[in-house]
């Protein structure tokens, strides 16, 4: 069980009393991505207390991507993030789908692999 404001980090369905599933983990991935990109949690989750009203609100209101900073984030990244942070757990992609089909994520992973390959000779000096 979660205590205090930590409950606001949970997936919507878990906030509403359902058991966590793999789909809840996909929500958590989206939450982490959102935090890494913006420095905050969606829906102001990191700025409010865990009251009955705030828990209900974050569990039922869609995450908005209309703030100006989202114009600086690639469309592909926004699509993946929007999919991960979908309120309805049945509409979220699986983690396998994200790894196989998310063009943005694949490109990022390939870029990291290329970077690491370029660093490898320096590591052996």
Automatic annotation (TrEMBL):
Q: Which SUPFAM superfamilies match?
A: Protein kinase-like (PK-like)
Transmembrane portions of the chain:
none
Show the GO MF annotations: ATP binding; protein kinase activity
InterPro entries per the UniProt record, alphabetical: Kinase-like_dom_sf (IPR011009), Prot_kinase_dom (IPR000719)
An example Pfam family from this entry, by short name, is Pkinase
Ranges for domain Protein kinase: 1-105
* Name listed for the protein in its UniProt record: Protein kinase domain-containing protein
| Source organism (scientific name) | Alexandrium catenella
